[in-house]
Amino acid sequence: MQKNNRAAFPKPPSAAAPSAEAAGYTANRTYKDNLFRLIFQDKKDLLSLYNALNGSDYQNPEDLVSYTIDDAIYI
Fold it and tell me: What range defines the domain where residue 36 resides?
């Protein structure tokens, strides 16, 4: 009798799984943008995010310059 080894591994997600948008869900971009701005308005927190995303270790939040784009068109 052969032992089935496939049960030991989790099944990968289906490549044909519908996206959230295809299922009828849409993101409220204004809400997400406002939440992001609220969380990262403090330069210390924004620098922490920058360091985490870039693998860097900057320490002085006052050296950080933040630029924002209002009323931009995304294509």
Answer: 28-65
**Residues 32, 40 contacting (CB under 8 angstroms):** no
Q: How far apart are the first and last CA of the chain?
A: 58
Residue 40 is assigned to a structural domain of this protein: yes
Distance, in Å, from the CA atom of 62 to the CA atom of 18, rounded to the nearest integer, reads 44
Cβ atoms of 60 and 46 within 8 Å: the answer is no
Least confident of 4-13, 17-26, 58-67: 4-13
Retrieve residue 18's tokens: 């519908």
pLDDT surpassing 80 at residue 39? yes
> Number of structural domains, the chain?
1
